[in-house]
Amino acid sequence: MTARAAAGAAAGAAVGAAARAPARAALGRDVCGHWGSAIHREWLVTNGLGGYACGTVALANTRRYHALLMASLAPPVQRTLLLAKVDVSVEYLGQRYALTANEFADGTIDPRGFVEIESFAVLHGIPVWRYALADALLEQRIFMAPGANVSYLTLELKRASAAARIELKPLAAYREMHTHEHGRRAFAVDARQSGCTVRAFEGAQAVHLDIDRGRFIAGAGAGAAAAAGGAAPGEWYWNFFHREEAARGLDALEDLFVPGVFHAEIDAGMALTFTASAEQTAPPAPAKAFGALLERSKASRAALPAGAPAWIESLATAADQFLVRRGDGAGSSSIIAGYPWFADWGRDTMIALPGLATVLGRFDLAAGILRTFARYVDRGMLPNRFPDQGTAPEYNTADATLWLFQALGDYLAATRDAELGRELAPVVKSIIHFHVQGTRYGIGVDPSDGLLCAGEPGTQLTWMDAKHGERVFTPRIGKPVEINALWLNALHVAARLADRVGDTDEKHRCESLLARAALSFRRFWNSELNCLFDVIDVDGGSGTDAAIRPNQLFAVSLPYTALAADEMRAVVDCCARELLTSYGLRSLSPKDPRYIGRYRGDPLQRDSAYHQGTAWAWLSGPFARAHYRTHGDALLAQSFLNPFAEQVESGCLGTIGEIFEGDAPHNACGCFAQAWSVAEILRSWIQLETEIQKTRKPR
């Protein structure tokens, strides 16, 4: 047995012993046993580097992003698909059972292993399948090693009257995550008794495939006669169909390479572990990796208020999926905006940070993220995003920098961390000064009223940033309402920080800027509609944009407000009346002629709908907080978050996705796991629950 295989020897049994029962609210045969429902439930596991494994409950890949090992080669970016999936089959009591599924270009679905699934659930963030095969019960888990590009698939025979023969067929690729593999290259396969090393070409990242019991036979067929040891050929399988890509108007066919087949035999009570690793050293023992994931999940849940429901516990566990290491130094941390296709974005990171880290007591992580992004501040601006190719950061954002102040303010209020305050005070000061003087893309304070202008033709600087080619769908050039609500709050945080570090001059400067901007914020009031304009001084002129959008909500949900109590309530009631859905707030009122209620079709069609009616889950958090602020009923405000309990048990189980269609029934779309969706709903539920518990009488 090789050192790589020995590292995982006997670990499958230990993993099985760590948690004997499947997760709560398991999906049964009524969902798992039917193609149409099993392919629309997904699962996700991550490694804290930006790498991940994900797929469908049916174990058929319906997206180009589905993979057993999507490695991050320059954390948290350069994500590269090394292993698309493993097809598992079992021979038991003379009968052969396939446990996975594939869909091909001609419509063929083969095999159809989903019909054997007795239940599926997510346990502490780990997907668990149970298969009923005659009188046998086989359990499968998939998870990753924290901090390593390593995926594990474990199989444990929980119940059986005879031995089961297991066959595992790995299907490999080598490609950037947004593309497809086509069988035009000769992969090199170095075989050994316990597995093989597969490399697409000289200099490519290798993937090491091993099993902790049984043997590997090179070649694609179960009966391949190639001897283990030395280089050996494999076989290509052609025209796998990714139906979700076809629905998105993109190319949908892929070819995958099978280097060989693993064979093993297990008896009742025994387990085996398959390991796929992109690491140069032996991967962590599966039991150790599993135990670390379990303890991390328990720690996250322990930070919740007493009596938190199961769906909130799931979100606390899911919070870890987005926290990643940025590979430019010890303690350098970031947040992946969403899986499966986003990298880390400045705006998303700062919005999500309080909910993913601070409210769960992960203060070291929160401080690390703030320090990491502070290092990238340039000309008073935070990066909008770090491209997945690892090139220079992009600074085309007017609000990411301002959200930094909110994340920092929340952190300092929770920790009183004087050291971090002193460290970041010069950065905060420089940001304010650059915004007053003016920086990129026309971002700067208008000396006539103290409000913040932003935007130039051809740019999209706010969170409503959809662009297709040169077409910007929501340019919002001028003075956007949420940008100025954030500016007021940034000045408020900056003044308090300056006071804390003893910079009296800066404190007075920020207070003066705040007083003037707050007075001028009255210009946003739309007396005709009894709400706020979305943009004033449009395109540098004197026009106003009266579109009913959720951006006005931040003038109420953020801590500092320039609005009177009746005005705040009017804003919340307007958003409730025009924009609220079960799964978030629409980005535009359905009464607006530009409204698009469905998010589907090719990239142009989807981009045009992205901020013209699509409902955004993350906005439910600010809405609930604003509702409590204006109506004073924490339990009522919290009830607006409750529909997400159902979402945690559908879509990608255990988490919350990015967007939903504006029209009922509000189908889920976009990224199936989104950082700020999880963060804002989790954060708001915790804050409201804290208020609710204050009013409860002790028993």
Helix count, DSSP H or I runs of 4 or more residues: 20
| CATH topology description of the largest domain | Glycosyltransferase
- Average of per-residue pLDDT values: 92
The CATH architecture classification of the largest domain is Alpha/alpha barrel
Structural class: alpha+beta
The total of beta strands comes to 39
Oligomer: single chain
Proportion of strand residues: 25-35%
CA(first)-CA(last) distance: 61 Å
What is the CA-based Rg, rounded? Answer: 26 Å
- State the shape: elongated
Largest sheet: 9 strands, antiparallel
Sequence-ordered SSE layout with sheet pairings:
Elements (H helix, E strand, L loop, with lengths): L2 H4 L4 H8 L10 H4 L2 H4 L3 E5 L5 E5 L10 E8 L2 E16 L2 E4 L2 E3 L5 E4 L4 E7 L2 E8 L2 E9 L5 E10 L4 E13 L11 E4 L3 E5 L7 E5 L3 E4 L11 E2 L3 E7 L1 H5 L5 E6 L1 E7 L4 E7 L8 H17 L7 H9 L4 E3 L7 E3 L2 E2 L6 H11 L6 H12 L25 H16 L2 H20 L6 E2 L6 E2 L13 E2 L2 E2 L6 E2 H20 L3 H17 L4 E2 L4 E2 L2 E2 L7 E2 L8 H4 L7 H14 L1 E2 L2 E3 L16 H7 L5 E2 L3 H12 L2 H6 L4 H4 L11 E2 L7 E2 L3 E2 H21 L4
Antiparallel strand pairs: 1-2, 2-3, 3-4, 4-5, 4-12, 6-7, 8-9, 9-10, 10-11, 11-21, 12-20, 13-14, 13-17, 14-15, 15-21, 16-20, 18-19, 22-23, 24-39, 25-26, 27-28, 29-32, 30-31, 32-33, 34-35, 35-36, 36-37, 37-38
Helix pairs in contact: 2-6, 6-7, 7-20, 8-9, 8-10, 8-20, 9-10, 10-12, 11-12, 12-13, 15-17, 17-20
